[in-house]
Amino acid sequence: MMRKTGTEMEKKNNYPPENLIRLNKFLANNTNFARRKIDEFIDQARVTVNHKVVTEQGMQVNPDSDDIRLDGEKIREKTKKLYIILNKPAGIITSTDDEKNRETVVDLINIKEKIFPVGRLDYDTTGLLLLTNDGDFANKLMHPKYKVTKTYVVKLSKPLDEKHKAKLMSGIRLEGRMTAPCKIVFTNKNDFETVAISLIEGRNRQVRKMFEHFGYFVRKLHRSAYGHVTLGNLAPGQWAKLSVEEVNRFFK
Ligand code: URA
Predict the structure, then answer these.
(1) Residue 5 needs a FRET pair 20 to 30 A away by CA distance; which of 52, 57, 102, 165 works?
(2) DSSP 88
(3) What separation in Å is there between the alpha carbon of 202 and the centre of ligand 1?
(4) CA-CA-CA-CA dihedral for 233, 235, 239, 245, to nearest 10
């Protein structure tokens, strides 16, 4: 998938865009009235922008700086939901802030809205990380009940034995609890040290611990997919907004 990256959006100076929106659309989005009804209110001189009665229906407003009122009551913008995909580089912590002032994934995304990561990737893990300001979305994605599959490409310290592969796939006892069944495939012919593992759980350092259980050391760990979402053309450190279709598919 070709994604327009956050960095490209910035270069073109349209991220964050100057937040212009048609007045009737802004009012319909942020009140319980339909746009047709809002147009009637405008005709009835019940709407003001910066304390002046508006008569023009197609007027553009900037909700960040304009004072917009209906019947004298100030209408504020509802919080915009944000859904971001980042290709996390190695050596960055997955957190919103760090007590030692180290760089975090949120520092890589220079937007003014507060967002947080959906789950976490270890300091050295690279790849697909989702960030949002929508708590329901994050909870849904992380809860095993919804069975969202996460796929990781793993470079191991030695070739994976078929016997261990089969055991890992059916479930092993890890810290007193069985892991759920998962899928493991070799990604390259003749390379038995590189595998792709797809699992629905997300316990702390789970993939590393699963392979360590049988004496393998994880040299590289990269998340390549989260449910139906993949990184597309995003290079390490780049981010983009998820498309509306990508977000909606998680809610179906
Ligand atoms: N499993 C791990 O062990 N580490 C990660 O970063 C993600 C999944």
Answers:
(1) 102
(2) E
(3) 8
(4) 20
Which atom of ligand 1 is nearest to 202's Cα? 8
- In terms of Cα–Cα distance, which of 98, 105, 25 is closest to 57? 25
- For domain 21-74, the question of CATH label 3.30.300.30 is answered with no
Can you tell me the distance from the alpha carbon of 23 to that of 30, in angstroms, rounded to the nearest whole number? Answer: 11
Structural domain spans, the chain = 21-74, 79-147+229-252, 149-226
- Say yes or no: CB of residue 208 within 6 Å of ligand 1: yes
CATH architecture group of domain 149-226:
2-Layer Sandwich (3.30)
pLDDT tens-digit profile, the chain (252 residues): 888 887 665 444 333 445 688 999 999 989 999 999 999 999 999 999 999 999 887 899 998 889 999 999 999 988 888 999 999 999 999 999 888 888 999 999 988 889 999 999 999 999 999 999 999 899 999 887 888 999 999 999 999 999 999 999 999 999 999 999 999 999 999 999 999 999 999 999 999 999 999 999 999 999 999 999 999 999 999 999 999 899 989 887
Cβ(160)–Cβ(216) under 8 Å? yes
pTM of structure: 0.78
24 within ligand 1 shell (Cβ under 6 A): no
**Regarding the domain delimited by 79-147+229-252, which CATH topology (the fold level of the hierarchy) does it fall under?**
Alpha-Beta Plaits (3.30.70)
